[in-house]
TrEMBL record:
Belongs to the phosphohexose mutase family. This is Phosphomannomutase/phosphoglucomutase. Its cofactor is Mg(2+). It comes from Intrasporangium calvum. Residues 9-125, 163-267, 278-386 form the Alpha-D-phosphohexomutase alpha/beta/alpha domain.
Length: 487
């Protein structure tokens, strides 16, 4: 019997199928979810959706059977994106479960869980209890007894058109100039949601968009490339297609289509921090027009220094948080923030139950581009003010001693230090061009993750190389790679 602690992570379930995540395990997790989340919250219904992976229909059906076994009704919405599941949880005001492994390879599947109103379920908010009860059941535990209300009923609903109409109601593209848009769905759920939201497949009116599709066929074996746009190798086809078609913009979605990456007309990526700044400015202006006076926007410690600058320039308050969706959502709820953004291209909206939706971020970018005549590169330039290294990972045996060595390096230089999430160090002022960096230990691997940003490339390169010298003098290089930290 698998140990659930091996693949029930801090924020979700993510395991190999069927070695770890089998139908038996999914059923036990469904029972536990009903007992730990749904019934204590006074909810008699759970909504369940799934992605296009071959194992997703069977696993979600087994989970639904476990939920209904405990007397809780189930609404099955079938194929959907993760933000489509969040929409269902919010609109129906019921807990939800999304079967997906996001950008992971085809051999994986997983589950993202939420409470009513798309509130996250993580290690500290119920997931550990769900895991432990499910493990007890799998190990032969008994004693729950029959559900007092009998078996829950199953119903099937299609919410795709309602999801699309809801998002369109938040961003008006009717006045946009015509745009040619290449979209790479990576054989993931964007192949379902993009035609529904940006096109007419769900019966919505046509938008002034000429959509050129790449890999819209739903195929959880990912025959063309991994559905992980954080890896630059997976953007190559999109970049080439944008240039070949003379498109205004390119969009890439990950496997469950909750994250959106953007490239400009030359095929050059627009950083998620720049998208955060652009969307933040629009959401701040929209909130102020609606009468809000105290406006906050959340960003994580890895976001560009330009992000809080843009937020302040638009008269709002930046709120800095740790990396990870549970921290972002908690701070947004605490502060009532209108928007939140992460360096991993997760974008969160108050008007979307504080949940993340790449499609709504894409609508904002398309609206910003279409309401004026400049190309995207020029539009984004005002939000890309500094030079960043990207996330660099190094395999390190003794993470703590190396972090202390970096702290000593910073103190000698008179730099400021904080420990909100890992170690963040900022250049002393005045005296040298702006720079800052963050170094964090992985929670699951012997890795140190380094991000450096500076006023100019020369400064960024100098600081980056000095730090890598400190880190790798006792480390084995893990190469330079972008890593998602908030799935």
């Amino acid at each position: 019997m698998p140990r659930l602690s091996d693949f029930v992570k801090a924020y979700d379930v993510r395991g190999l199928v069927p070695e770890q995540l089998s139908e038996e395990v999914a059923h036990a997790l469904g029972v536990a979810f009903a007992e730990v989340i749904a019934r204590p919250d006074g909810k008699d219904r759970v909504v369940i959706g799934h992605d296009m992976r071959p194992s997703s229909p069977q696993l979600s059906a087994a989970f639904a059977d476990g939920v209904s076994e405990r007397g809780v009704h189930v609404t099955l919405i079938g194929l959907c994106s993760t933000d489509g599941l969040y929409y269902a949880s919010g609109a129906l005001d019921v807990p939800g479960a999304m079967f997906t492994a996001s950008h992971n390879p085809a051999s994986y599947n997983g589950i993202k869980l939420c409470r009513s109103g798309a509130q996250p379920v993580g290690q500290d908010t119920g997931l550990a209890e769900v895991r432990d009860l499910a493990q007890w059941l799998l190990d032969g535990g008994s004693g729950l007894g029959p559900a007092t209300s009998g078996r829950g009923e199953l119903e099937v609903r299609d919410l795709l058109a309602e999801y699309g109409a809801f998002l369109r109601g938040l961003v008006d593209l009717s006045g946009s100039r015509p745009l040619k848009v290449v979209v790479d769905a990576g054989n993931g759920m964007g192949g379902l949601t993009v035609p529904a939201v940006l096109g007419t497949a769900a019966g919505l009116p046509a938008l002034p968009l000429d959509i050129i599709p790449l890999y819209f066929e739903l195929d959880g074996t990912f025959p063309n490339h991994e559905a992980n746009p954080l890896d630059p190798a997976n953007l190559v086809d999109l970049q080439q297609a944008v240039r070949e078609h003379g498109a205004d913009i390119g969009l890439a979605f990950d496997g469950d289509a909750d994250r959106c990456f953007v490239v400009d007309a030359a095929g050059d990526p627009v950083s998620p921090s720049a998208i955060t700044g652009l969307v933040a400015a629009r959401e701040i202006d929209r909130a102020r027009a609606a009468g809000d006076t105290e406006i906050a926007v959340v960003h994580n410690v890895i976001s560009s220094a330009a992000v809080p600058e843009v937020i302040q320039e638009h008269g709002a308050t930046p709120v800095r948080t740790r990396v990870g969706h549970s921290f972002i959502k908690a701070e947004m709820a605490r502060t009532g923030a209108v928007f939140g953004g992460e360096h991993s291209a997760h974008y969160y909206f108050r008007d979307f139950w504080f949940a993340d939706t790449g499609m709504l971020a894409a609508l904002h970018v398309l609206a910003a581009l279409g309401e004026q005549d400049r190309p995207l590169a020029e539009l984004a330039h005002g939000f890309e003010r500094y030079v960043a290294s990207g996330e660099i990972n190094s395999a390190v045996a003794d993470q703590a001693s190396i972090v202390e060595r970096i702290r000593a390096w910073a103190v000698v230089r008179g730099a400021s230090v904080d420990e909100l999430d890992g170690l963040t160090v900022r250049a002393p002022e005045p005296g040298e061009p702006m720079w800052w960096f963050n170094v964090r230990a992985s929670n699951t691997e012997p890795l140190l993750r380094l991000n450096v940003e500076a006023k100019d490339r020369e400064t960024m390169t100098r600081i980056r190389d000095e730090l890598l010298g400190l880190i790798r003098s006792r480390a084995t290089s893990a190469g330079d790679q972008q890593e998602e930290r908030s799935e």
